[in-house]
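Our consortium's second objective concerns turning raw sequence data into structural hypotheses that experimental partners can test. To show how far this objective has progressed, the report includes one record in full. It was chosen at random from the queue rather than selected for favorable results. The single chain below, 218 residues long, was entered without modification.
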Amino acid sequence: MSNSSDPYTPPEDTLFLTRRTLKLLIENKNSILIITKSDLVVRDLDILSNGNVVVSITITTNDDNLSRKLEPNAPPTTKRLRALEKLITNNIITTVRVDPIIPYVNDDLNMLRELIRELSSIGVVQITASTLKVRGDILNRVCRVFPEIAIKLRNLYAKGERLGNYVYLPKDLRLKYLLTLRDLCYNEGLAFTVCREALQISTPGIACDGSTYLLKKE
């Protein structure tokens, strides 16, 4: 819940659809992997604590102002970090998705180093990373939000690699970003994986979505 749509969108605050679904799933002994950008997940700790659950939270930057520009409808980074701490305190295994990495936006090495150190310090076990993949209007939307880098970003993707229905950054640049992030994770004792990058650089035996830890708990 869920690789394609967040189970904790703003309406869930009052609708409780995800909460009722979680209760039903756990009552029937299902293992649950939650992938979300929202701190609302901690509302359901009373249910999650009774099941085999892993929670993965997306954090693209440690800068609240930048996170509001990148994800205007999601909670700021500080709230997501507090949610991670609360989940971990309640013995819920957590992973973090640093996704997507966008050149000239959230690729600063010092920022990434600080973020990884903080995530390690609070007890996150795995980082999953991915670069921005574009199709349709995605690149245009990013350029509208960050007009100061629009030309440079368009030039990069013009030289990019087409895989399936998406245009990726050039392979050498993707490899540079993701190996750098992997080194930061390994320095902090964290597992590291990539998703849909066509690069064999993940920690062996670890699934990119965090589901490995569900299997270990069963």
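The partners drew two points from this record. The two ends are 18 Å apart (CA to CA). Residues 12-132+171-217 form a domain with the pyruvate-formate lyase- activating enzyme fold (CATH 3.80.30.30). Both points have been shared with the crystallography group to help prioritize constructs.
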